[in-house]
Amino acid sequence: RAKQEGRNTYRLYRADMHAQDSQRLALETALRNTAETGDGLVVHYQPLFDRDSGQIRGAEALVRWQHPTLGMISPGDFIPLAESSGLILPLGEQLIDVIMGQLRAWHQAGLDPVPVAINLSPRQFWQSGLAEWVGQRLAHHDLPARLVGFELTESCLLDQSQAAAAILRGLQSLGCFTAIDDFGTGYSSLSYLQDLPFNELKVDRTFIRRLNDGTRSSRAILGAVTGLASELGLTVVAEGVETAEQLERLKPYQIDLIQGFLMGRPSPAATFADTWLAPRRMTADDASDR
Ligand code: C2E
Ligand code: MG
Ligand code: MG
Ligand code: MG
């Protein structure tokens, strides 16, 4: 009997493994198709506001994947597969074109686009020729570089800060802005802030959430990080602001921009534009447009 049970168990296990493998393969095949054609790539935009004036200052582009049968998949559920399979490279290129195309479309529709931050995963960041490629795409879409920036997490930077600095400088010298994302979650080192050319620091939302505990150490850490970043001339962003109470608690800190569900959720491009983008004023530039 034991032998039989063992055999059954073995078979079940095999069947299960097979199901998982083929599921993963099917997902990867569908993702490859999206990476090649761009079909199914959906970008949502979440606004960032000036903490003191309440004015909109930018947006973050957040990708979703519209799967043919599974519906809308969030980035946490497919970016890791994209990254491990290498599909993140063609996918990321499609994505940058979608976002730049959107900025151009807003401009052409008579709206005043805000700067948009694009998330980069490690493989994208380290792909050789990144800045040159971005420069080409900006020219192709006829966009000013100041409308586009890049966010990366500390996992992009590990042990490679010299080389990372060169890539960041490449992006900055195009005129794009650079941001360190989810600061404080990885192997955070305050020395990154001195060594690496970032324009912006985004304090991870766990720090904002921890303020709710009201502990002295949470306040001390947030105070130190925002104080130093601000002193170094970085734009400081608080992400994940969900409640009016949290916003109130942020008051004593040197925070420039705020982002979170309280002020605005990520939304499809059309909704974002209707809600947040102002009509564009004519400028000398427009007048000289052919
Ligand atoms: P992230 O770059 O830190 O993006 C912020 C995430 O926090 C987004 O989740 C956003 O929807 C969510 N968020 C914003 N405000 C709040 C809030 O008040 N409360 C809470 N609880 N969450 C808030 P999302 O869209 O699921 O993205 C998750 C992560 O996936 C991103 O984290 C980013 O690391 C990655 N990701 C998103 N889009 C892209 C992309 O185009 N390329 C790459 N490589 N990664 C991306
Ligand atoms: Mg981000
Ligand atoms: Mg973030
Ligand atoms: Mg985050």
From TrEMBL:
Organism from which the protein derives: Modicisalibacter tunisiensis
- Residues annotated as domain EAL: 24-280
Q: Which UniProt keywords apply?
A: CBS domain
Q: Which residues of the full protein are shown?
A: 552 to 841 of 841
Q: What is this protein called?
A: EAL domain-containing protein
